[in-house]
Amino acid sequence: MKEHQGDLCSRYVKIFIVVSCYWIISIATVFVNKTLLSSDSVKLDAPLFITWFQCVVSFSICFMLSRIGGVPGIFNFPKGSPWSFKVVREVIPLSIMFTLMIATNNMCLKYVGVAFYYIGRSLTTVFNVVFSWILLRQTTSFRCVLCCACIIFGFYLGVDQENLLGSFSLVGTIYGVIGSLMLSLYSIFTKKVLPSVNQEVWLLSYYNNAYSIILFLPLIVMNGEIGVLWNYNNFDSIYFWMQMVMGGVCGFAIGYVTSLQIKVTSPLTHNISGTAKACAQTVLATQWYNESKNALWWTSNLIVLGSSALYARFKQIEMEENSRKPVPEEKRSLV
């Protein structure tokens, strides 16, 4: 009995540490990126270049881990090369979505405040339902659709209140909606691409960052950032490069702690943890940047957060119910 209690206690401690790391790294990543993208200390109006550099850092870390096989005693990094023609052909469509997703996410963060960032990107769940029906022909229960309707209402209310407070950015909100759309597509198509990399999430991250380094180059040119980079005067600043490297490390770390949190808990717990983290992040941002928000603005956040958590719970219940249904005899050989 004592041994069982000891094992249970150690498991809870492990879960607490992992969830705490997820919260700290996730929130730190948002604040670091906000500093890089729009602070007076950096003053570099080249968000796509900053995002591209973060991909370079993530790719470099993945490349080193692939060479040494991972971190001994912590995790093994799968072997693989992103330069195989077969891999490029199968993964590059997903990498295009990945590139557009992280580009629009950072563009959104550049123009909106950290407090509004979650609301600006809150339509991912809605797009998941829409694209699951269009692409996969998967129907959604009425209660989940109702949660999506509440999310849309919360999003509208948040935009309306942000506009009344004078801090609304139409450009940033549009980028947030596009980022939500791309995240939804990326999530759906990831399931199709994972078998091509032996179900290895780390390998897929390695390949995505490798291809994104190339895919970002024409986007940087089209966004007019070459002239900005040419005239930038702080490339010799150690502080600037420390911030850039820190942003890249945070981008890599968030991928690891997200996978780790799902592994030691469950997808549902991860969703609930992410929702609670978003709430804490919003409160922290209003205090950090000394922003004053009215009651309706906070109500919009609560509606989106609560509806997202309920949606995740309802989907979990539906998955459990479906798993208990008997499989017809004629379909058993296919399962």
From TrEMBL:
Keywords of the record: Membrane, Transmembrane, Transmembrane helix
Recorded superkingdom: Eukaryota
Annotated Sugar phosphate transporter domain residues: 14-278
Transmembrane spans: 12-31, 51-75, 87-103, 115-135, 142-159, 165-189, 210-232, 238-258
GO cellular component, one term: membrane
Full protein name: Sugar phosphate transporter domain-containing protein
Pfam families xref list: TPT
Compartments where found: Membrane
Matching InterPro entries: EmrE-like (IPR037185), Sugar_P_trans_dom (IPR004853), TPT_transporter (IPR050186)
Keyword Transmembrane: yes
Its membrane topology: Multi-pass membrane protein
Cited PANTHER family: SOLUTE CARRIER FAMILY 35 (PTHR11132)
